[in-house]
Write a structure and sequence with these properties.
Blueprint (H helix, E strand, L loop, with lengths): L7 H18 L4 H8 L3 H9 L5 H10 L6 H4 L7 H6 L18
Length: about 100
């Protein structure tokens, strides 16, 4: 699905639905997850309804349902490929000349 044309509100709604499905797939009630996450039931309900939430609430939810590793999918650790390093090599900042030796004279 192409999410680039979705509004932030629509994306929150989609995320909320996915989080609710994740909770249900783990056979957990909202009360269980809220308690385990240290959240109010209302905060969890708002998160699942896509009505706005905080990053902290989202992270607490992920931890409570055992899916905190999802952060790696959302914001992977940047890596530099060897080919990119070769392509971005900078030109030398100084020009160095070989010293003249007696043989070169």
């Amino acid at each position: 699905m192409d999410y680039s044309y979705q509004t932030p509100s629509e994306l929150q709604k989609i995320l909320g639905e996915r989080l609710q499905r994740l909770r249900l797939d783990n056979r957990l009630t909202q009360s269980e997850v809220a308690s385990k996450a240290g959240l109010s039931l209302r905060a969890l309900q708002k998160l699942e309804a896509g009505e706005g939430s905080t990053v902290e609430t989202f992270l607490r939810f992920l931890k409570a349902v055992g899916q905190i590793q999802a952060i790696e999918l959302l914001a992977p650790t940047p890596t530099v490929s060897p080919m990119a390093m070769l392509a971005s090599r900078r030109e030398p900042m100084r020009v160095r000349h070989k010293r003249k030796t007696e043989v070169d004279s």
